[in-house]
Design brief:
The chain has 244 residues and is of the alpha/beta class. The protein folds into two domains: 140 residues, Rossmann fold, CATH 3.40.50; 85 residues, N-(1-d-carboxylethyl)-l-norvaline Dehydrogenase, domain 2 (Orthogonal Bundle), CATH 1.10.1040.10. Helices cover 42% and strands 15% of the residues. It is built from nine helices and seven strands. A seven-stranded mixed beta sheet has the order 2-1-3-4-5-6-7, with helices on both faces. A hairpin with an 8-residue loop joins strand 5 and strand 6. The radius of gyration is 19 Å and the shape is elongated. The relative contact order is 0.10.
Length: 244
């Protein structure tokens, strides 16, 4: 199966970025919100990519609804990096055509896409999606269905530990970031990177991982306080750094 027509569900900046990547590769992409009437839009779609927030009940409802609308051979994909692909697929009648396609934010700048098979995902579905990722000039990485996959699981734990180091006064903000940039050749330090992701996103990620995997992912109290104060990073103008 060759994927040529794609619908992205989710109209925020992340969904827009995925749509841009796809259209720049010469494929057809439409961007729609969950409340729109999709019965006409999805009649000739090869792949639906859902990019809503990490809310399992919301995602289940979305997939249950679109499963009833899409043609039999349409592949359904989710961008989640925390929720179970197998569990999300279970609300549909096409678990063999359900897969995880975890684009990274911002989708227009990051080359990696983590591909995750659920327990029932067919090899044909995986092969079609792997070919699709190649065609949009992205690099595919195969990951087993597990909370946090690879990048998020490793990245947010590093960010969380950096915040603990700051909170305990072990080192300053700039010294923590410079240590990783100059000592480990990271393009951004962990606190700077947290600001770019959004501290609310980091906290939500840690809370999911803490629930699923235990105390190693317990969110730092300083992170919680900053989120409660609305200091979320670049998007609010203030996080660990200040932004004009």
């Amino acid at each position: 199966m060759e994927i040529n027509n794609i619908c992205i569900l989710g109209e925020d900046e992340f969904g827009q970025g995925i749509a841009q990547v796809i259209t720049q590769a010469g494929l057809r992409a439409i961007l729609r919100g969950v409340r729109e009437n999709l019965s006409q839009d999805l009649k000739d779609i090869d792949l639906v990519i859902e990019s809503f927030p990490e809310d399992i009940e919301l995602k289940k409802k979305v997939f249950k609804d679109i499963d009833e609308i899409c043609p039999f051979d349409t592949i359904l994909a989710t961008t989640t990096s925390y929720l179970s692909i197998t569990e999300l697929a279970s609300v549909t009648k096409r678990a063999d055509r359900f897969i995880g396609l975890n684009f990274l934010h911002p989708a227009t700048e990051t080359k990696l896409v983590q591909i995750t098979k659920g327990i029932a995902t067919s090899n044909q579905t995986y092969d079609a999606c792997r070919s699709f990722v190649d065609r949009i000039d992205r690099v595919a990485v195969a990951v087993n269905d597990s909370p946090g996959l690879i990048l998020s699981r490793v990245l947010v734990s590093m960010i969380n530990e950096a915040i603990f180091v700051l909170m305990y006064g072990i080192a300053s903000r700039d010294d923590i970031d410079n240590m990783l940039k100059l000592g480990a050749n990271f393009p951004k330090g962990p606190l700077e990177f947290a600001d770019s992701l959004g501290l609310d996103v980091v906290l939500a990620s840690l809370e999911v991982l803490y629930k699923e995997l235990g105390s190693a992912y317990l969110p730092c109290p300083l992170l919680k306080k900053m989120v409660l104060a609305g200091e979320l990073g670049k998007k609010t103008g203030k996080g660990f750094y200040h932004y004009d």
